[in-house]
Each structure stands twice: as structure tokens, then as C-alpha cells.
Amino acid sequence: MGMIPLAGTSFAASCSGAGCDNQGPRATGCETASVSTQRTIDNNSRKAELRWASGCSAAWVRVTNNSSNSLYNSYGYIEKYDSAGKLIRSLSIRVPDTKGGSDWSNMLGGASYYYRVCISFVGNEYPMKCSTKF
């Protein structure tokens, strides 16, 4: 006979730190591992949030389209830096075209790194905007 978990039962995340690099927050359980928004940047009604899961020591970018104008393709980025300020890795996700649409990138991990999120547009319509590092 199989076991059925009780409501409210929590499961440990399947990755931690740099072991979470390029893995999805939902698939690994990090999406619910003490998550907080550390930085937010807005660029022409496209929002990027730096999401940090302290239970996994990993970060990702969540993007939301708050504009009714879907003419411009835009992307959200999560960037990982070492203590000397050198860019280690970057991941991106396309911002949904529909107003209110939201999506998120895979993660970058490690508590000894710094992270920031950015929003950019294809072409030269608007300059790239980035948050401060966390």
C-alpha cells in the first residue's frame, strides 16, 4: 500500500547552492523554500524580481508584463557575480506578451555570490535596466 503525504507536509529541496545552477525552482522544490523578493526593477511596464530561496541558497528572475502593449519583445535576466565583481553566469527568460503574464527563469545558486536582475528589449526601443546587486 502506498503512502499519501498529509496536507501541509513539506519536502526538502533537491538542490542547494551552485548545485541548483540552471535548474527550475518549481521542479526542485526551491520555489517554496523560504522564498523572498530581494530586488525589483521596472522597465516600460515590464517587471523583473530577484527571487531568493534561502532554503536552497539560489536565485532566479520572475518577470511580469504589466503593459497592454505587446509590440516589444523583452527579456528578463538573472546574473551571478563573484566577490571581485566578475560576471560568472547569466540566464534569461522571455517576458510574456500578454498583460499580467508572468514567467520565471531557471536558478543560479551559491550564498557567496552576488546577483542582480535586468530587463532588456529586442532592438533599441528602450535601454536595458538592472537592479543593484544582492
Question: Secondary structure elements and their pairing?
Answer:
Layout: H1 25-28, E1 35-43, E2 46-53, E3 58-65, E4 74-81, E5 87-94, E6 102-104, E7 108-109, E8 114-121, E9 129-130
Antiparallel strand pairs: 1-2, 2-3, 3-6, 3-7, 4-5, 4-8, 8-9
Summarize the structure.
The chain is an all-beta fold.
Distance between the termini: 47 Å
Rg for CA atoms: 16 Å
Q: Could you please say which CATH topology applies here?
A: Apoptosis, Tumor Necrosis Factor Receptor Associated Protein 2, Chain A
User: How large is the count of helical segments?
Assistant: 1
What does this structure look like?
The protein has one helix spanning 25-28; strands spanning 35-43, 46-53, 58-65, 74-81, 87-94, 102-104, 108-109, 114-121, 129-130. It has a single domain, classed as Apoptosis, Tumor Necrosis Factor Receptor Associated Protein 2, Chain A (Sandwich), CATH 2.60.210. Strand 8 and strand 9 form a beta hairpin. By secondary structure, it is mainly beta. It is 3% helix and 42% strand. Strands 1, 2, 3, 6 and 7 form a 5-stranded antiparallel β-sheet that branches. Strands 5-4-8-9 form a 4-stranded antiparallel β-sheet, with no helix packed on it.
Based on the model shown, name its key terms:
four-stranded antiparallel β-sheet, Apoptosis, Tumor Necrosis Factor Receptor Associated Protein 2, Chain A, mainly beta, 1 helix, five-stranded antiparallel β-sheet, 9 strands, 134 residues, disordered N terminus
